[in-house]
């Protein structure tokens, strides 16, 4: 059967102006990315802020147009797909549920929204399916009558998940779904997502800067650096035997976590990479502890084998 998600040569360029009189510059947020996600599995995407992972999520959700390349969802090209059909296939869960929930609406109406947007759904069906979605995420009918401000952060994220499930999609794109939550609540939401995937046969694209979170849920992991996937591998293998120097640095940074920060301490003692200023050669070379001469002039090509993919001259 077709993979749930297939991405081919995906590229997205933004034109940004960095000062009032500066001429616009091109920022390549996603640069020739290809991968596929088998149905029922979880691809974790990790990397620092600004690496392009949220842009990737928005391209796969059809919220952004690619500059080049294709996204196929369930074997169908996303470009040109009707919005309502797309919503039945793929749904998002974003980081900050408070920002994405209308404060003036009751929970049950928020969860009903994707169904109502489909048009032509009977009131009784809406009520029944909203009730089912609330059940699935562990919220009561009574909680469905409340407003977002009356719920905790974890409950609000359950609402966002119920809203994503109400159309019974096959694929859910989670972009930092637990990053705004307390650590104890994070585990509950992760366990809920894992359980829903098992019970409903869902496929996830799961984006996070937090490697521990990704390790918990992903079957395969892609590591992004300045718009490229620099390593991709089955999850257990990636954590046990990382092959790219950047992956190794990210894993080392997990040993010295900085709670509350959106950006991991990569342990290389420097600042964030700048997507508007991608270094020549290997884009990681200014921070790479094992760089060799040609790294500053020659971009490594991706090498794929049974263990996955890695993009490094030394691999
Ligand atoms: Fe480091 Fe060179 Fe490999 Fe890039 S290609 S990760 S600079 S060793
Ligand atoms: Mg982001």
TrEMBL record:
Q: Does the keyword Isomerase apply?
A: no
Pfam families, alphabetized: ABC_tran, oligo_HPY
Query: Can you say where in the cell this protein is located?
Result: Cell inner membrane
PROSITE patterns according to UniProt: ABC_TRANSPORTER_1, ABC_TRANSPORTER_2
Q: Where are the annotated coiled coils located?
A: none
Q: Does the keyword Hydrolase apply?
A: no
**Keywords for this entry?**
ATP-binding, Nucleotide-binding, Transport
Tell me the InterPro entries matching this sequence. Answer: AAA+_ATPase, ABC_transp_ATP-bind, ABC_transporter-like_ATP-bd, ABC_transporter-like_CS, Oligopep_ABC_C, P-loop_NTPase
Q: Which SMART domains match?
A: AAA
Q: Which NCBIfam families match?
A: oligo_HPY
Q: Which family does it belong to?
A: Belongs to the ABC transporter superfamily.
Protein name in UniProt: ATP-binding cassette domain-containing protein
Q: Which organism is it from?
A: Neoroseomonas marina
Lineage of origin: Bacteria, Pseudomonadati, Pseudomonadota, Alphaproteobacteria, Acetobacterales
